[in-house]
Design brief:
The complex is a heterodimer of chains A (301) and B (269). By secondary structure, chain A is an alpha+beta fold. Helix content of chain A is 23%, strand content 36%. The two termini of chain A are 14 Å apart. Chain B is 8% helix and 30% strand. The chains are: A alpha+beta (301), B mainly beta (269). The interface between A and B is medium-sized, with 21 and 20 residues.
Chain lengths: 301, 269
């Protein structure tokens, strides 16, 4: 399949189940809500060593937030509900509780509850007070700028992690430009985050390594520098740079939609822009139950 | 069809209507309901002696008609279903209810909604003393649910209240929210003396005239915009005088320092 000179591999992205939650951070103005959200989603690119994958889903108007202030919706993904609970508590405790004027609310209503303000309340040293409003419990913790208000808990939902696109381009400039436009298009969609820096990862990995201690290692089949050296390569000589966009979504259809608009952004970039092929990472279908076939995604559109 | 119980005449002695809840009556025919015993003083009499029972109209509510101001404990321990009283009702209306809805279109007597823990209690008229409070000898008053009084409240409204939301559109008697453990009371009208006497925790919102604040409360200048918006937006669903609170500010007093001191009075300015 070729669109605007860009070849789409007949392959699929393999994704796996995760646990996720959405939290809503509000503040006195958008700047401080953003500060808290950026901080809370920092160092959250991969569950391999960060504990979670997190990102800003979108910014919220005052009309969309529980307290009528500007806010930011943040998605946090982890491999288990227990790990997610730990990460939510640490990140909200260190990055939202600490940030001037912020408040934090659950962004998902249905699902198993994990603590949001439930344990952070003890920072109040006995001065904290709770209030149930319309069936929802909030904690009010006195802090130096007034009080920190946090909803008691947020809900955990089943989610999909590891959707991806590989953008195979002529050179660095064209690969970056194609990846940037793909990420920009995906960010307009609800329910997804691209957790890597700028939404893009250059160190795509394969499962396993020659070193027994490592679970994952460089994806040599897609390294242009190993063409002709590695036993198996997916590349051809005209490809000088490969970048990957990894997508975590609340549902399978959210991830599929993001992959679709990402590919379409790539086509707009076209062969003239230096994009040669679009592929996807999988592990032969053995690792994850969610398979996103690139051709099927495009045919469905 | 709704179940209608029409009071034949005002009883000479007080009637105890506990047990007349939709869940119990749903499975019974009007004739069986008329044979039910209800307490009057220290004896039991058939319900038919005081009420005519019919099923008619739409809905599945239990509807009571007539002047029930001598009928006590209506909706006692109500857990589910809908009760409507087309006139006034006696003491203990909705006491200990945990769910369902009790709608009194007239006024209610003493101890309305006392120790209720869930559900919705609406009184279009006034309520007597000790509404939303505790049963005599009990440590905790109202502990959940929603209690709305469109008229005035008597003395000691919300005494020892622990949880839930109570809204009074009219005036309140003395000792509003006294010994309050937690929960929320919003008042639209004029408060009486000794507001929040011995309050431990909880929130009292004064949307109308401000109360006289005791010297055991301290003024607080700390901004609470988030909490105020959350509370004001929830109270707004009751309409005026609570509808526009979110656009207004609240002056806050903390206390009662003679008790735990974690309560707050919110005087809307």
């Amino acid at each position: 399949m070729i669109r605007n000179g860009v070849a789409i591999d007949d392959t699929f992205a393999e994704a796996f189940p995760m646990k996720a939650t959405r939290i809503v951070i509000t503040a006195h103005n958008p700047t401080w809500a953003r500060h808290a959200a950026v901080s809370a989603t920092g160092f959250a690119t991969s569950v391999i060593a960060c504990g979670c994958e997190a990102g800003i889903e979108r910014e919220l108007d005052p009309a969309e937030t529980p307290d009528g202030r500007p806010g930011v919706a943040v998605l946090i993904f982890s491999m288990s509900g227990k790990e997610l609970a730990k990460q939510v508590e640490r990140r909200v405790g260190q990055c939202v509780l600490t940030c001037p004027t912020t408040a934090v609310f659950a962004g998902i209503a249905e699902g198993e509850a994990v603590a949001l303000g439930k344990n952070l309340r003890f920072f109040g040293d006995g001065w904290q007070i709770s209030k149930v409003i319309a069936g929802v419990r909030y904690w009010r913790v006195p802090v130096m700028d007034g009080e920190f208000v946090a909803q008691e808990s947020t809900a955990v939902t089943k989610a999909v992690g590891g959707g991806n696109l590989l953008l195979l381009a002529r050179d660095t400039d064209s690969a970056l430009a194609a990846a940037e436009s793909a990420v920009q298009a995906m960010r307009r969609l609800p329910g997804v985050i691209m957790p890597f820096p700028g939404g893009v990862v250059r160190s795509g990995s394969k499962v396993g390594s020659k070193y027994p201690a490592l679970m994952a290692s460089t994806n040599d089949a897609f390294c242009p520098g190993l063409l002709g050296l590695a036993r198996r390569s997916e590349l051809t000589p005209e490809i000088g740079c490969v970048l990957e966009v990894v997508i975590d979504g609340l549902t399978e259809s959210d991830v599929a939609a993001a992959m679709r608009v990402g590919m379409q952004a790539g086509f707009e970039h076209g062969a003239e822009g230096g994009l040669v092929r679009i592929s996807a990472g999988n592990y032969g279908g053995k690792l994850g139950p969610f398979h996103f076939h690139l051709h099927q995604l495009l045919e469905a559109a | 069809m709704s179940l209608h119980l029409s009071l034949r005449q005002r009883p000479g002695l007080r009637l105890d209507l506990r047990g007349l809840v939709p869940a119990t009556l749903a499975a019974l025919s009007p004739a069986e309901i008329e044979r039910m015993d209800i307490a009057q003083g220290n004896r039991f009499v058939p319900l038919a002696e005081f009420f005519a029972v019919t099923r008619r109209g739409d809905g599945d509510a239990l509807v009571l008609e007539g002047d029930l101001s001598r009928c006590d404990r209506l909706g006692w321990q109500l857990a589910a279903g809908n009760i409507v009283v087309e006139g006034p009702v006696g003491d203990y209306a909705g006491a200990c209810m945990s769910g369902g809805e009790l709608h009194v279109k007239g006024s209610a007597g003493l101890l309305a909604g006392c120790e209720m823990s869930g559900g919705a209690l609406r009184v279009e008229g006034d309520v007597g003393d000790f509404a939303a409070s505790a049963l005599p000898g009990s440590m905790d008053g109202m502990r959940g649910g929603s209690f709305v009084v469109r008229g005035h409240a008597g003395q000691r409204f919300g005494d020892r209240m622990r949880r839930g939301t109570a809204v009074v559109f009219g005036d309140a008697g003395d000792f509003l929210g006294s010994r309050m453990v937690a929960g929320t009371i919003a008042l639209g009208g004029r408060p009486g003396a000794h507001v929040a006497y011995g309050m431990r925790r909880g929130s009292l919102v004064f949307a109308g005239p401000p109360p006289e604040v005791a010297s055991t409360f301290v003024a607080s200048a700390a901004p609470i915009p988030v909490f105020w918006q959350l509370l004001a937006r929830d109270l707004a669903r009751h309409g005026e005088p609570f509808g526009a609170l979110r656009a207004r500010r609240a002056q806050r007093f903390l206390g009662d320092l003679s008790a735990l001191g974690k309560g707050e009075l919110l005087l809307v300015t």
